[in-house]
Design goal:
- This protein has 340 residues and is of the alpha/beta class.
- It folds into 2 domains: 133 residues, Nucleotidyltransferase, domain 5 (2-Layer Sandwich), CATH 3.30.420; 177 residues, ATPase, nucleotide binding domain (Nucleotidyltransferase, domain 5), CATH 3.30.420.
- Helix content is 44%, strand content 18%.
- It has 12 helices and 12 strands.
- Helix 4 crosses helix 8, helix 9 runs parallel beside helix 10 and helix 11 crosses helix 12.
- The protein is globular, with a radius of gyration of 20 Å.
Length: 340
């Protein structure tokens, strides 16, 4: 960024291609954020391939523009975390970047872990557009639960919360369920004169896409923080589903007797107390050996940390904190972090 000094000759790129947005960050060997870009959704299970390509390209090009005054687009390493096949983004990287080091493709959970702690093990509960739980024990065993997608699962995700919010709004509007401010707030957010116009939005308009439904989740969180009982119930059920997945991972690896740090990753946790408090209550009852870490870090921090490590940079606590701070400040200036 303007006014900062950067370590010359060593730059890496981290990419996070998710269900709602794609993020690209370029950092130097000292952990300074040099370039940053974003695009739209990139998961080709839910959007057309051409849109995923466009999302990656927009993010990459925007990040590289900031690097241009420093020198050529020659990077020491790149790390990508995305469910999207590399055939979508690899041609773009070959087109726009001169890479003199490794290209690493990693899992979303590995990126969440690497972006939050220098430990190489722990429990990750991810709740962004989709959701899953993942556990890696100290001896290296791994198990995951969830991640089935919008039609088969993703309970507790932004899509699931958004869909439950839409249903609660409709039931309240019809008088088939408790009255809720969601009926009015969702219509207002979508610019609808009345809630019945929601039908065309869902089947023909913005909400026909998974990331569109997920965009309703912040409205549910806001309603819950205002004390709306229907919204509170949705977030409590979301916490229950996420805790179920986490408990399943711990039981599957017979890890109930060892202390486990837990990382909450994904924009759903921007709802703060409304989702985290019931989750912590369930953990105290079901998983007393698990401690939820306070940090909430964008996943792209982890891909940058992994890329730096593969480029020969030691990831210390200080360096990780610098990555977290720089990228998070940049990201917060750009968009609502609720969706990841």
């Amino acid at each position: 960024m303007k006014g900062e000094r950067h370590t010359p000759g060593r730059y890496v790129m981290g990419l996070d291609g998710g269900g709602t947005k794609t993020v690209c960050a370029i950092v130097d060997g000292a952990g300074h954020t040099v370039g940053y870009g974003q695009g739209g959704p990139a998961n080709i299970n839910f959007v057309e391939r051409r849109l995923a390509v466009m999302s990656f390209e927009n993010a990459i090009i925007e990040a590289l523009l900031a690097l241009a005054p420093i020198g050529p687009h020659c990077l020491d390493a790149i790390c990508v975390a995305s469910p999207t096949p590399c055939s979508v983004y690899l041609p773009l990287l070959e087109k726009h970047v001169a890479l003199k080091g490794p290209l690493v493709v990693t899992g979303e959970a590995d990126a969440a872990l690497a972006g939050t702690t220098t430990n190489q093990w722990g429990l990750v509960v991810l709740a962004g557009t989709g959701s899953f739980a993942w556990l890696k024990t100290q001896d290296g065993r791994v198990h995951s639960i969830g991640g089935w997608g919008a039609m088969l699962g993703d309970e507790g995700s932004a899509h699931w919360i958004g869909l439950e919010g839409l249903k609660a709004a409709i039931r309240g509007y019809d008088g088939r369920g408790p009255c809720t401010i969601l009926s009015e707030s969702i219509a207002e957010a979508l610019g609808l004169a009345e809630l019945r116009l929601l039908i065309s939005e869902v089947y023909q308009g913005r909400l026909r896409y998974r990331h569109g439904v997920a965009s309703i989740a912040p409205i549910v969180a806001e309603a819950a923080n205002k004390g709306d009982s229907a919204a509170i119930d949705i977030l409590q059920r979301a916490a229950y589903e996420l805790a179920l997945a986490a408990r399943g991972c711990v039981i599957a690896l017979d890890a109930q007797g060892e202390p486990i740090p837990c990382i909450l990753s994904g924009g759903v946790f921007e709802a703060k107390d409304a989702i985290i408090n019931p989750l912590e209550t369930l953990f105290r009852s079901w998983l007393p050996n698990v401690t939820i870490l306070p940090a909430r870090v964008p996943q792209v921090v982890g891909t940058c940390a992994i890329a730096l490590q593969r480029a020969g940079v030691e990831i210390t606590e200080n360096l990780l904190e610098k990555l977290q701070s720089g990228i998070q400040k940049t990201q917060n200036r750009r968009f609502d972090p609720f969706l990841t």
